[in-house]
Amino acid sequence: MYKKLLVAGALALSTCLTGTVGFAADTANHQVITKNGEQAAVKGPTTIFNGNVIIEPLFNNIDDRNISGAYVTFEPGTHSSWHTHPKGQVLIVTEGQGLTQEWGQPIQVINPGDVIWCPPGVKHWHGAGYNTKMTHISLCEAVDGANVNWLEQVSDEQYHGK
After folding, report:
1. Which residues, 6+ apart, have CB-to-CB distance to 79 below 8 Å?
2. Which residues are the signal sequence here (predicted)?
C-alpha cells in the first residue's frame, strides 16, 4: 500500500532491511518493477522506536549499489531513537507532519514535500508530530552491511524540546 513516500541495527531498521527486494547485477539492461503489495510491511521494533511504526520496504541493493529505501509511517507521538548513518540518509516526507532533530540543535518541523539530508555520522532522530502521524521515504546506503548505528532512546523531555 504505497501512499501519496532507516537501516541496519536491531533489525537493520527493517526499512532498508526485511524482505526487501535485491536486484541482481544482470538486471542492469532492463527495468525491474516490484508490484505494490509484493513485499510485506513490518512493525518497527520497540528497541529503536517508542511506539507504533510501520515499515514498508521499497527496494534494496540495486545492481552493485548498497542502497535501500522504504516508506516509514509513524503514529502520532512516535519517533526513532537517536542514530547515525555511515553514508548519510535522505528522508522525503510524503504525508502528515513530523519532527526531526540533530544532536545539540533545535527540533525542526517537517511537512509533505520536504526533503531532509542527514550527512554521515550526524546524530539525529525523526518521527511524527505530537498529534499527527507522519510518513516519509527513507533512503540510505550501507557500509559493510550496516546502514544505521542505533544509539540511546530519545527522552520525553528531548522529544518535547525541553
Report:
1. 49, 50, 51, 99, 125, 126, 127, 128, 154, 159
2. 1-24
**Summary mean pLDDT of the chain:** 84
Number of domains in the chain: 1
57 falls within a domain: yes
Q: Any idea what the CATH number is for the domain that residue 141 is in? A: 2.60.120.10
Q: Is residue 147 part of a domain?
A: yes
DSSP bridge pairs for 84: 149
Pull the grid cell for residue 68: 535501500
For residue 137, what are the domain limits? Answer: 22-159
Q: Is the dihedral of CA 136, 61, 144, 141 positive or negative?
A: negative
pLDDT number for residue 10 = 29
The answer to whether residue 28 sits within a structural domain is yes
131-154 as b/e, with b when 16 or more CB fall inside 10 Å? ebbbbbbbbbbbeeebbbebbebb
Q: Is residue 3 part of a domain?
A: no
- The order of strands in the sheet holding 108-110 is 108-110, 98-102, 124-128, 83-84, 149-150
| Residue showing cell 531498521 | 13
Quick check: 68 and 139 in contact, CB under 8 A? yes
Q: Which of 6-15, 100-109, 130-139 comes out lowest in average pLDDT?
A: 6-15
Q: Is the pLDDT of residue 61 over 90?
A: no
